[in-house]
Amino acid sequence: MFLSTPRNYFLSKPQFLDNPHSWIPHIPFAFWLMEMIKPKIMVELGTYSGNSYFAFCQARKALRIPTMCFAVDTWQGDVHVGKYSKEVFQRVNRINQEEFAGFSTLLKMKFDKALDRFSEKSIDVLHIDGTHTLKAARNDFNNWLPKMSQQCIILLHDTKVRRPGFEVWKLMEEIREQYNLLEFPFGEGLAVICAGENPPAPITDLIEHSKNNPEIIQWFEILGNNILWKKEREDLKHQTEKWKQKTALLNSELLKEKRKTKKLVKQLRKKSQS
Ligand SMILES: C[S@@+](CC[C@H](N)C(=O)[O-])C[C@H]1O[C@@H](n2cnc3c(N)ncnc32)[C@H](O)[C@@H]1O
Fold it and tell me: Domain residue spans in the chain?
């Protein structure tokens, strides 16, 4: 099968899933990409709870490839995800230290501030998943372009979202003529862009093959949705368990109140008869 790789790591189970779930359907592709192109440097702009970033890190660790990984985020939220609690960063930081410290660095800062940390033409994989207005996404794309290597791949998340303010699709349309690209049109959409002069053969082959063989994209979709639905089922089971416990507690409170009421009614009757 075309997708098959020496370790078939794209069939693996992600270990560090949390809310929000929107990136989960693309995890098999993240695994596949890491195994196939073995980037030297990968950078993510917008990490939040780490579903995408930890997928790249998990593959890097399991496959023992020589990638240095960097996650850039203020971990404060933005106009689209809103402001979130400090616990989000604390969890990401803990997982990073316990599991990936040898090769992964969290850069808790604005994207623009992190630019100086990287040399020109050094990054092989850049995942852009920050603020989703056209202005912000275009800025991120253009600012980081000089840092990209000749073999680089840029990933743009949320290309399918049409909610107000979500305009990554507009950026994708702007650059479609200029670069060889592929869009995974499921989940919230992920564009895979060959932004360098010498793109990796596995990616150009994938783009070429998928033109006449749409089942290749569907395979990634089926694998990704399986992970998503399993996670949603787990979360629902967890919620159901919580509600069951709450219902049991309420039932016992109710029973106590009923007994008290019965006692009171008895006392009242006795009083009215005497
Ligand atoms: C959509 S979330 C990332 C989702 C994540 N990739 C996942 O797998 O679920 C966007 C993140 O980008 C961060 N962000 C947005 N604009 C930023 C900027 N200019 N500098 C630093 N962080 C930014 C926000 O704090 C937020 O955590």
Answer: 9-224
